Fold this sequence. Notes:
By secondary structure, the chain is an alpha/beta fold. 45% of the residues lie in helices and 20% in strands. It is built from 13 helices and 13 strands.
Amino acid sequence: MKKTLSLILALTMVMALCVFAPAASAEETYTVGICQLVQHVALDAATQGFIDALTEELGDAVVFDNQNASGDISTCATICNNFAASKVDLILANATPALQAAVAATDTIPILGTSITEYGVALDIDDFNGTVGGNVSGTSDLAPLDQQAAMFAELFPEAKTIGILYCSSEANSVYQAKVVQEELKAKGLTVIIKTFADSNDVAQVTQAMCDEVDAIYIPTDNTAASCTEAISNVAEPAGIPIIAGEEGLCAGCGVATLSINYYDLGVTTGKMAAKILKGEADISEMPIEYFQNPVKKYNPAFVDAFEINFPDDYVAMEG
């Protein structure tokens, strides 16, 4: 009887210890909020590269809250404010309006941008030196704009008037257009600039442009990238070739591009995120990273339509 009572008391003490003892610390987990401006090939690839790279680094320890603003800037603000309120561990801002919304939402949560052309322009930083500082860093999709401008003389030597077409509300498109305009004018070409406010007037503005130019340049513009069919439906019948700022845009309406790889850009951003979350890097000291090896590519779908002989250093786009 005494032995039974002792056993009961011992079991009771063990159970009490189990109840009141602190639980063993579980593996740390991270929540990463993703705000992507709009769904199109380039931004989708950057997001996927980011997710794949960060998952490879952290496995199941990272949970993604992937949100798409469907091209609406005010929705970017709502998404990022919600991320800040829920205190996610890191925010990926995919495209300039998403980055601007994230920066407005929090100055403490680490923010990584991707698919941002020029951080100084996007964040209104004078004399930008390559490092944003504070809680912001990321990757840039800026390709060599002088080399993109040089493609017109290379592919369309008879063209005298070049149009530059972009969305007026996208700060990075404004920046690219200005640089390319200066490059083209320096080569003795006439440049006409036309802009659209949103997707509603893309076709109309494109038609007006086609009536005045020999060829068109479209920078890495998110609105244009989501309206490539509307642009192509006007430009191709008019016989006006387009050089695009990136491959996804080119696939929809362009004949050629000097483009980065957006999936690889996302991978680079994901690796940056892993270092931040693991405490291996201070985001305030991380410089913006750039894609190092852009490639000249042409769109086989338009070869017959425009009868272009592409130099050997151009690679055919897949798909």
